[in-house]
Amino acid sequence: MPSNFGISVVGGEVNFSLNEELGEVDVQKMLTFHAEDIDALLRTHSADQAYWEALALRLKLRYEEFKDIWVRKWWARANRYSRVMLGAYGDKSPTNSAIEDMAVQLYSQDVSDTERQKFGVIAHAFATKKGTYRGSPDEYYVEMFAQLLQNPSWFFENVVTMEKKLESDFNIVQTVAKRLNSQAFHLDLYAKLHAPKKGNIGPMAIDERAVLDGIGGKVYE
After folding, report:
1. Domain tally for the chain?
2. Is residue 183 a contact partner of residue 42, using CB atoms and an 8 Å limit?
3. Which of 5, 146, 153, 199 lies 20 to 30 A from 122 at CA?
4. Is 33 helix (H, G, I), strand (E, B) or coil?
5. From CA 125, how far away is CA 160, in angstroms rounded?
6. Which residues, in sequence order, are bridge partners of residue 6?
7. Rounded to whole angstroms, how far apart are CA atoms 36 and 21?
């Protein structure tokens, strides 16, 4: 069976292989253990924990790259043409709020192609008058709405939805990884509490269930 998580170092370069194609995992079951499962969990828990932590880091990187690179690039273009539109309407010193509102109006999927064509004509006329553009209206339209003309189209709604989804994916997996880390402590403590009994030393003078339940909630049934 291929490894879900592997690391290799070749020529001083670290390479990670992380299998993200998981079937459905019952997280509630994974984070719940019974006394009879302790031995098996002690053998596999650290590997499971490492995998989920690595997956959380991978999703964090994917979210941050999208936010810091692609979302910023999208807004940079949208803000540029929003300023042009506001200038055409006579707003020479638009506020950030006005620029963002215009960007949503220009690049929302609710705007019809006819309305967008009108926006393009108005913006082109203004840019031409200001001497900042010398191309044709069609060329200007392609530049102004390049993000919508590609496949798939990156409307305002798509950008926001994708950013929120990537953030949610990361946060959920990170939560699972953190709970596995907490469970590792509980497993270790449970194993230590039971070790004397397995050696037939005698009964313990400690209420192990109270100790375990008092640390971080009920950890076994």
Report:
1. 1
2. no
3. 153
4. strand
5. 30
6. 17
7. 30
Predicted pLDDT of residue 95: 96
Residue-wise pLDDT for 189-204, tens only, equals 555 655 555 444 444 4
Q: What is the C-alpha separation between 74 and 52, in angstroms, rounded? A: 31
Q: How far apart are the first and last CA of the chain?
A: 32
4 in any annotated domain: no
Helices within the chain (DSSP H only): 27-30, 38-65, 72-88, 96-107, 113-130, 137-144, 146-149, 156-198, 208-216
* Residue 73 in domain: yes
Any domain includes 48: no
Provide the sign of the torsion angle of the four alpha carbons 155, 161, 166, 167, taken in this order: positive
Is 131 inside a domain boundary? Answer: yes
Q: Identify the domain containing residue 73 by its residue range.
A: 28-42+56-216
Q: Report how far residue 138's alpha carbon sits from residue 151's, in angstroms, rounded to the nearest whole number.
A: 19
C-alpha 116/C-alpha 119 separation (Å) is 5
pTM: 0.73
Strand partners, 9: 14
For residue 66, give the DSSP letter.
I
